[in-house]
Recover the amino acids of this structure.
């Protein structure tokens, strides 16, 4: 709201009633249209602006008044922005599943001003998810800020509570039957134009989409762990995924500060197909006594500049997850190089699954 | 439409017989209390009312001094001179912020007077927006007027004045009842001042006596409230209308920030020195003062002020209060607007509110609280616990 003197043609950004220059009554002018005329992406955190990066925009309204406005969403010069709607979170996002990635994605999104509804299976997992997210927030925010951020979070055991979400990100177990069940449920409760995204790392988008009433609105949106640190998302285009869905999800990814890569729906997509092959091959090297696991890890760190070596990474991902992805890749691509190495399978049998069981290639 | 001010004031061509060439030519204020306006909105309202009251338009103002004690800690807003500039789009004049704790407004006023060597017409605006912060933040911020290390050791504002009160009451064998009477009189005066924080509050002696202890021996009613508000005045080196008030003198004197470095707790040396200088300049004595506004941030400081300003001997202020000398129609009307206790204490505006009141009284424009025959008035404004003290003498030009 600005206050305007028609006599002096002066403007006030403060709520004042009379013109100090001429005594005339000032007119309050509300703005309904805001266009971006300048912006900067801010990368250093400060009190009140803990979450970075964010964008500080200069907006101009229909009265030619300029205002400063903050958003986590990315707009370009000339874009018209909906100040009211954006301020409360442009999208309401649903997240299905409260595992590592589910809770990571939810935490990341509420820190960026989105309202998030998490669907979980039981009251018990509901409580533990809330605790997990609270703890994550407390690492970066004060108690007070955390309480504020949590106001944007709703955890439910009821699919129907996702009905207002603009986009739902499914982060359940890597099991086609379970995912199809979830997507079937989603398509019966979510609003018509809601986009249904899956965080699958290897399953077919097309096959998941078949369980819904809107295969054109089903897409893959693959985050990487830890969500707060890894800039990449794979946007996986299924056979029936529409251009609009692709565009919206690409924009959404950028708005939340991620860099999307677009991948056709194929086994393992991009990252996992490359990565799991490398892990599998590293295990072969170990089995053939070519080098020790410590040396292989060190070689990939110091020689290729990877932040961690393949064995440390396999432990971090989870040996069972590695084997499950490799099996999918092997089955679908029918290439022998993807057959899970014997050692990996033995580790799964003996429940040495990596970081999560505190025992894998290394002890934790 | 004519520039605001021109049509409202009476421009006269009186030649002054005064020698000082410092005049207050316009005053304006907001209500004090728990207000909905923001800090800039309060400042604007006071400036607007001041320009309406003054015979000059805003475009005749050469410079502005703005005072605010806590805009930084409580409102997260510094660079206040530029905020004031935003309220006066297109004016682009020199504006400065002045801060000396609770005497900030007097300090800004004095800076404005100094600046009349260079400028003709200068505005002073004092503003404080305090009530939007949590009470514990308010208390912490207010205590920033004290030495930092002592504050961390628990010496918040009421505690400092409580220590002073403890010593004063025992030294002169005075009962707390006298302080209750000081509070009662200030509240009664506030009931006659529509701008006052406690204009509508009916206060009884029982309420005062039974109020909770804040810092012994001071009760809630011994303390001035936390208020929002703003006041503005225009000073000029020329007298331009019959309503002008001459500034005889205005002095600010400083002292150590810590009470531990003072010889006496029951008198403020800085206030005594400031008063002495002001009397000397005006060739005046306490007997010449018709009306006074004293800095009653706590009841005890009203007693000390009356003594420091020479209206009575040490330890005799209580008798003045008991005898009714300080009532509106007493020998020396004190705090006719309700004082800090009744009118309110929006720190950065307080000293100017005191000046505002004396100006209205001398002009004869104080309406329902007008005193008889006010010609010379005094304002006593303390920063911290006497680390700063400003005394101003005003006189009618009629």
């Amino acid at each position: 709201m600005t206050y305007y003197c028609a006599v002096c043609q002066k403007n006030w950004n403060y709520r004042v009633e009379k013109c100090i220059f001429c005594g005339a009554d000032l007119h309050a002018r509300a703005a309904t249209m805001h266009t971006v005329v300048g912006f900067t992406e801010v990368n250093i955190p400060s009190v009140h602006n803990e979450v970075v990066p964010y964008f500080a925009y200069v907006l101009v309204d229909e009265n030619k008044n300029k205002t400063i406005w903050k958003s986590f969403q990315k707009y370009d010069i000339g874009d018209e922005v909906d100040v009211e709607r954006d301020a409360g979170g442009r999208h309401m996002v649903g997240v299905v599943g409260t595992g590592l990635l589910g809770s990571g994605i939810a935490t990341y999104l509420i820190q960026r001003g989105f309202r998030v509804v998490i669907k979980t299976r039981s009251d018990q997992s509901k409580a533990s998810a809330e605790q997990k997210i609270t703890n994550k927030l407390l690492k970066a925010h004060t108690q007070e800020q955390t309480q504020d951020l949590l106001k944007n979070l709703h955890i439910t055991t009821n699919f129907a509570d996702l009905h207002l979400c603009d986009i739902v990100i499914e982060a359940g177990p890597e099991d086609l039957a379970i995912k199809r069940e979830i997507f079937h449920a989603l398509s019966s409760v979510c609003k018509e134009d809601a986009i249904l995204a899956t965080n699958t790392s290897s399953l077919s988008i097309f096959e998941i989409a078949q369980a819904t009433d809107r295969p054109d609105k089903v897409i893959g949106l693959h985050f990487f762990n830890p969500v707060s640190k890894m800039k990449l998302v794979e946007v996986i285009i299924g056979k029936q995924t529409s251009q609009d869905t692709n565009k919206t999800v690409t924009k959404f990814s950028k708005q939340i500060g991620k860099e999307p890569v677009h991948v056709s729906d194929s086994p393992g997509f991009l990252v996992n197909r490359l990565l799991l092959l490398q892990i599998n091959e590293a295990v072969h090297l170990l089995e053939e006594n070519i080098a020790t696991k410590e040396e292989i890890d060190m070689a990939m760190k110091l020689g290729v500049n990877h932040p961690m070596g393949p064995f440390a990474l396999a432990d971090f991902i989870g040996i069972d997850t590695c084997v499950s992805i490799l099996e999918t890749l092997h089955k679908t691509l029918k290439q022998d190089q993807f057959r899970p190495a014997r050692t990996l399978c033995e580790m799964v049998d003996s429940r040495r699954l990596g970081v999560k069981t505190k025992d894998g290639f290394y002890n934790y | 439409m004519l520039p605001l001010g021109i049509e409202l004031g009476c421009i006269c061509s009186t030649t002054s017989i005064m020698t000082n060439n410092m005049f207050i030519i316009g005053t304006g204020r907001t209500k004090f209390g728990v207000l909905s306006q923001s800090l800039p909105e309060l400042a604007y309202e006071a400036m607007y009312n001041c320009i309406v009251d003054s015979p000059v338009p805003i475009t005749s103002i050469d410079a502005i001094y703005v005072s605010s004690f806590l805009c930084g800690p409580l409102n997260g807003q510094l660079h206040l001179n530029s905020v004031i500039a935003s309220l006066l789009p297109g004016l682009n004049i020199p504006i400065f912020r002045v801060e000396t704790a609770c005497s900030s407004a007097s300090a800004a006023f004095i800076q404005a007077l100094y600046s009349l060597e260079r400028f003709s017409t200068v505005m002073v605006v004092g503003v404080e927006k305090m009530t939007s912060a949590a009470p514990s933040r308010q208390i912490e911020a207010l205590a920033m007027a004290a030495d930092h290390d002592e504050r961390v050791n628990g010496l918040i504002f009421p505690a400092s004045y409580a220590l002073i009160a403890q010593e004063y009451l025992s030294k002169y064998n005075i009962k707390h009842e006298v302080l209750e009477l000081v509070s009662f009189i200030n509240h009664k005066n506030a009931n006659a001042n529509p701008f006052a924080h406690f204009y509508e509050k009916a206060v009884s002696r029982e309420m005062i006596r039974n109020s909770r202890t804040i810092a012994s021996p001071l009760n809630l009613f011994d303390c001035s409230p936390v208020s929002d508000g703003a006041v503005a005045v225009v000073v000029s080196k020329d007298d331009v209308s019959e309503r002008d008030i001459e500034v005889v003198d205005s002095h600010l004197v400083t002292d150590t920030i810590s009470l531990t470095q003072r010889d006496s707790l029951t008198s403020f040396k800085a206030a005594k020195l400031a008063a002495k200088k002001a009397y000397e300049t005006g060739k005046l004595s306490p007997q010449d003062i018709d009306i006074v506004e004293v800095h009653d941030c706590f009841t005890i400081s009203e007693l000390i002020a009356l003594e420091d300003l020479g209206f009575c001997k040490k330890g005799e202020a209580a008798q003045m209060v008991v005898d009714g000398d300080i009532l509106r129609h007493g020998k020396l009307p004190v705090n006719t607007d309700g004082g800090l206790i009744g009118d309110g204490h929006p720190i950065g505006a307080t000293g100017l509110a005191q000046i505002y009141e004396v100006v209205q009284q001398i002009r004869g424009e104080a309406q329902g609280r007008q005193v008889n025959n006010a010609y010379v008035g005094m304002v006593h404004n303390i920063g911290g616990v006497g680390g700063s003290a400003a005394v101003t003498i005003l006189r009618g030009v009629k």
Remarks:
- Residues 150 and 260 of chain B are 10 Å apart (CA to CA).
